[in-house]
Amino acid sequence: MSSMPIWVLGEALMDCVAQPDGSLRPLMGGSPFNMARAAALRGATVGYLNPLSTDLFGLQMRAQLLSEGVQLLLPASRLPTSLAVVQLVGGQPSYGFYREGIADRDYSVEQVLKQLAGTAPGVLHTGSLLLVPPEHEKVIAVLHGAKALGWTISVDVNLRPKLAADLAAYVEAVQAVAKLADWLKASDEDLELLGFAAPSRAAAPQIAAHFKAQGASRIALTFGADGAWLEVDGSAADQDVPTVTVLDTVGAGDTFWGNCLGDWVLQPDAAPVRVATTLRQAMLAAAINCTRSGCQPPTWAEVQAAD
After folding, report:
1. Which of 243, 241, 249, 259 lies closest to 290, judged by CA?
2. pLDDT in the model for residue 1
3. Are 267 and 285 in contact (CB under 8 A)?
4. How many CB atoms lie within 10 A of CB 303?
5. Positive or negative CA dihedral for 153, 158, 159, 162?
6. Buried-state track 26-36, b at ≥16 Cβ within 10 A, e below 16
7. Using CA atoms, how far apart are residues 229 and 234, in angstroms rounded to an integer?
8. Helix 109-117 with 135-148: angle, nearest 10 deg
């Protein structure tokens, strides 16, 4: 087991995936929720901070996390589970969100910091929908408090522009959170929204230099079918996407980052030396996830068997 825990602050929601007949198929989702599962299946010690609902969906999510070894750190909420309606076109998801008055936003900065202060510092991960204003203000307050307590901050940018009433304010909020990241992941779509013109794998070193100047030391940049690039404390590697039959890409980035974080907390020494191995195995885990419907991260045994 890991001596350094990964605690996750972020949304848990039901992805209601549109089917060809017009019906909706509910699948558990939310980028941080998915990442928590992937890191736990990798073998890390993982805790989930946001409240889950006492409704049927929330109970299903609770059972899923517990079955995969994720600890639940805050009490349940009577508010309903957040929903996303997902339309898949060519295997690529697009989303519509229902996130007012919901369980995963039913927490206080004080609650989270009390939990963080009560254990030895580890990695605090956040990103995605909790960075949408005004929720990002709570997240920034938590991150400042966590850093003061000695926690390492992980951020997956994971911008969802359709959710923002004011896209410019959303991007500004994400930029403010990114400045607090010790470890950061961003996709090519995220990078475009953050102002990087035509981001590509070839330009990854220059893009990463921007985040390094803000204080990040471990940076993952993903470019969809064009592969990914990873830098760990000054050592870098890039790699093509493994060849698999893709069913859909839901949760691929979350699975990738969960395996990166899991690798780092389980093997804290010599992470720069392992950068190419970490990248290869994380991409393989993401590829396995893409052969399945919805986010279904592989176990570490499955990744090892395919490596």
Report:
1. 249
2. 45
3. no
4. 22
5. negative
6. ebbbbbbbbbb
7. 13
8. 20
Helices (H), 68-203: 109-117, 135-148, 167-178, 188-193
Give the integer Cα–Cα distance in Å for 4 and 18.
39
Tokens matching residue 3? 């001596």
Q: In what order do the strands lie in the sheet with 92-98?
A: 24-29, 13-18, 82-89, 92-98
The backbone torsions φ and ψ at residue 217, rounded to the nearest 5 degrees and listed phi first, read -115, -20
Compute CA distances 264 → 45, 122, 217, 249, whole Å. Answer: 12, 11, 13, 24
- Judged on CB neighbours under 10 Å (0-12, 13-18, 19+), 133 is middle
Bridge pairing between strands 24-29 and 13-18: antiparallel
Distance of CA 147 to the CA centre of its chain: 19
Q: Which fold has domain 6-306?
A: UDP-N-acetylmuramoyl-L-alanine:D-glutamate ligase (3.40.1190)
Return the half-sphere exposure (C-beta side, CA atoms, 13 A cut-off) of residue 71: 10
pLDDT, tens digit (0-9, with 9 covering 90-100), for 220-275: 999 999 999 999 999 999 999 998 998 888 899 999 999 999 999 999 999 999 99
Whole-number Å distance between alpha carbons of 129 and 43? 26
Is the sign of the CA dihedral 90, 300, 258, 47 positive or negative? positive
220 with 230: CB under 8 angstroms?
A: yes
- The string over 75-112, giving b where at least 16 C-beta atoms fall within 10 Å of a residue's C-beta and e elsewhere, is ebbebbbbbbebebeeeebeeebebeebbbbbbeeebb
pLDDT of residue 171: 96
Q: How far is CA 166 from CA 10, 132, 133, 195, 212, in A?
A: 20, 9, 9, 16, 28
Tokens 């390094």 -> residue: 212
